C-alpha cells in the first residue's frame, strides 16, 4: 500500500471515497482476490487517473464502486452516502438520481442498438419524470457540449462512427448532470483525432467541477487529463500522488515498469532485459 490514499483538495468534501476496499471472486480453493485494501478519493473538479495492466483490478474497482460486484470488505461513499452493500432496489433508485455515471470503453455496450440518439439520451430523463420538451432541451444542450450536430438525433448507434458513438455515450452520462463520472478506457478504441476530442471534453468536464475517475492503461492520455494518479498492481494500490510527480519520478518498481514500456518521441520503450529487471523487483 502507498503511504497515503489518493487525496482531495483540503477544502472540499470528496464526491467519491473508497476505504479499504476488498473484492473476491469465487469460493473455496477457487477464491481469487481481485482487490485488497484499496483506498482513494476524488473531489469535485478533480480527475484521478487509475492505471495498471489488464487484470490489475481497474475495472473491478469501477464495478465495485457502482455496486455491480459486492465488496468483501471496506466501504464506498458517493456524494456523502455510504452505498456499501446496498440492495439492487436501492442502487436502481440511486442511479436514477444521476449522482454517478459510467462511460464504457465500447459505447455499443451502453447504447441500445435499437434506440435513436434522441431516445437514448432522453431515456434517463424521462425515467425521472421529466417532460419530453424539457428532456429534448437538455439533450440538445449536451449534444452541443460534446461537439455533435442535432442532425444525428434520429440515427441509430450503428449508423455513427466510433468517435461519434463515444461522444454520444459521454453526452448520455452528462444529461443527468452527475457529480461523478467513471470513465473506463474511454479512448483506447479511438483513432488519434477522436482521442484528442474526447480528452478535451473530459478536461472541460473536470474544469466545470465534475469529479472524474479516469481508468486507463494509456499513460499519455492520463498525463494529459489527470490531477492525480493511482497505480494498481495485482489488486493493490502501490503508488499514488500528483500526476506530474508519479509520471516523472515513480517510486514503485511496477510504476517504473509501466512507464518504461511506453515509447516516446525522445526515447524507445525499455528493452526486454530492462523490463525483466524491473519485474524482479516486484
What does it look like?
Residues 18-259 form the ABC transporter domain. This is ABC transporter ATP-binding protein. GO terms for molecular function: ATP binding. Keywords: ATP-binding, Nucleotide-binding, Transport. The protein is α/β, with parallel strands linked by helices and 282 residues long. The chain contains ten helices and ten strands. It has helices at residues 58-65, 88-97, 117-127, 132-145, 162-174, 192-207, 219-225, 243-248, 253-260, 272-280; strands spanning 16-25, 32-42, 47-51, 73-78, 81-82, 100-103, 180-184, 211-216, 228-233, 236-242. It has a six-stranded mixed β-sheet, sandwiched between helices. A four-stranded antiparallel β-sheet has the order 2-1-4-5, with helices on one face. The longest helix has 16 residues, at 192-207. The protein starts with 15 loop residues before the first strand and ends with a helix. Residues 6-10 and 264-270 have low confidence and may be disordered.
Amino acid at each position: 500500500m502507498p503511504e497515503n490514499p489518493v487525496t482531495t483538495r483540503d477544502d472540499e468534501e470528496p464526491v467519491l471515497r473508497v476505504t479499504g476496499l476488498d473484492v473476491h471472486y469465487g469460493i473455496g480453493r477457487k477464491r481469487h482476490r481481485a482487490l485488497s485494501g484499496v483506498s482513494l478519493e476524488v473531489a469535485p473538479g478533480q480527475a484521478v487517473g487509475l492505471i495498471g495492466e489488464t487484470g490489475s483490478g481497474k475495472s473491478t474497482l469501477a464495478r465495485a464502486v457502482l455496486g455491480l460486484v459486492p465488496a468483501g470488505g471496506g466501504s464506498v461513499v458517493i456524494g456523502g452516502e455510504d452505498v456499501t452493500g446496498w440492495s439492487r432496489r436501492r442502487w436502481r433508485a440511486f442511479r436514477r438520481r444521476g449522482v454517478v455515471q459510467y462511460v464504457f470503453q465500447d459505447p455499443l455496450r451502453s447504447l441500445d442498438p435499437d434506440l435513436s440518439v434522441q431516445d437514448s439520451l432522453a431515456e434517463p430523463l424521462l425515467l425521472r419524470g421529466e417532460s419530453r420538451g424539457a428532456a429534448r432541451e437538455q439533450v440538445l444542450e449536451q449534444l452541443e457540449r460534446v461537439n455533435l450536430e442535432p442532425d444525428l438525433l434520429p440515427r441509430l448507434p450503428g449508423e455513427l462512427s466510433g468517435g461519434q458513438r463515444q461522444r454520444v455515450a459521454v453526452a448520455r452520462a452528462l444529461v443527468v448532470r452527475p457529480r461523478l463520472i467513471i470513465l473506463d478506457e474511454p479512448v483506447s478504441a479511438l483513432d488519434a483525432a477522436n482521442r484528442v476530442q474526447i480528452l478535451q471534453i473530459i478536461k472541460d468536464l473536470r474544469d466545470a467541477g465534475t469529479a472524474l475517475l479516469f481508468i486507463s492503461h494509456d499513460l499519455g492520455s492520463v498525463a494529459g487529463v489527470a490531477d492525480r494518479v493511482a497505480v494498481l498492481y495485482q489488486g493493490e494500490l502501490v503508488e499514488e500522488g500528483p500526476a506530474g510527480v508519479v509520471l516523472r519520478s515513480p517510486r514503485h518498481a511496477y510504476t517504473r515498469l509501466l512507464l518504461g514500456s511506453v515509447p516516446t518521441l525522445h526515447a524507445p520503450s525499455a528493452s526486454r532485459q530492462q523490463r525483466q529487471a524491473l519485474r524482479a523487483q516486484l
